[in-house]
């Protein structure tokens, strides 16, 4: 009876080499899927942050409230400031109003100076002097300057990388520069006590974010009546 023949050393080495190649290919496939899932999650998170920021922008504009002390909305080319009703306000308990500011601020980066879109808000305000100080703090914050009268209850949120932004106000039936006098009544500066009919926001996100290219978002004053 013939004896059973085993594998030679060369055959065993070849089999081991084939298994090693298959294992390496499998690992690369698993690693590729894991990387794809991670990038997809990062993309989804970045997109959600951008959507949340734009929703907050619209919410702030919808809640703008005139005070008679400072402009309801003001843009000086660097920082947008507005006064809005407090989101926690109820009919029985009115904690006051807040000053909110939006700006493009520098941020540390491995590739030099980068910029981020950011939002700032004051605590609820109930007195005129508090409002005046918060209005000044918002301007200092929006220009990247040290706030001379800080309030521990002020809050800031950095949203996402931003290369550039632009604002236009709709007054007198046309989109105009917020710093121009177009649409002002009786020679009054447009930023003083005159709420625009609309605000057009144009953003240029930094490269590598979830959305590329320009983003434009229009807001229309909720109390604006329909034309005839």
Short description:
The chain has two helices and eight strands. The protein has helices spanning 9-62, 128-142, and strands spanning 73-75, 79-85, 97-107, 114-121, 155-171, 174-176, 198-205, 215-220.
Account of the 3D structure:
- With 228 residues, this protein is an alpha+beta fold.
- It has a domain at 41-160.
- It has helices at residues 9-62, 128-142, and strands at 73-75, 79-85, 97-107, 114-121, 155-171, 174-176, 198-205, 215-220.
- A hairpin with a 6-residue loop joins strand 3 and strand 4.
- The chain is elongated.
- Residues 183-192 have low confidence and may be disordered.
What's the topology here?
Layout: H1 9-62, E1 73-75, E2 79-85, E3 97-107, E4 114-121, H2 128-142, E5 155-171, E6 174-176, E7 198-205, E8 215-220
Antiparallel strand pairs: 1-2, 2-3, 3-4, 4-5, 5-6, 5-7, 7-8
